[in-house]
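Course assignment 3, question 2. Fill in each field.
Student: A.L.
Task: Predict the tertiary structure for the chain below.
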Amino acid sequence: MSSPMRIRAAETGGVADVRVLMAHPMETGMRRDAAGAVIPRHYITEVTARVGDRVVMTAHWSPGVSTNPFLQFRVRGVSKGQQLSVTWRDSRGDTRTDQTAIT
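Answer field:
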């Protein structure tokens, strides 16, 4: 099981600044281990953020994103106390969803 995402969402004037830190190896399939064997591809392919049931952001990623990626974005039309959830799906079909209240 992967580590929880660290999500912060702070609202000012109906706009939330969202910051997400994800724990993921983000392997491209191009590196080799100490024995010379290729490390298999394993990277996040899609990230979706929701406020309640409303999708507010979707990103499609390639293997070029760094290990333990950091994502920052803004969401309009929100208020303090609403639940923000972030879900990622990776190249192996694994998913993780975490949420936080907007402060």
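Instructor remarks: The chain has a mean pLDDT of 96. Strands lie at 6-12, 15-21, 44-51, 54-60, 70-76, 83-90, 95-101.
Grade: pending
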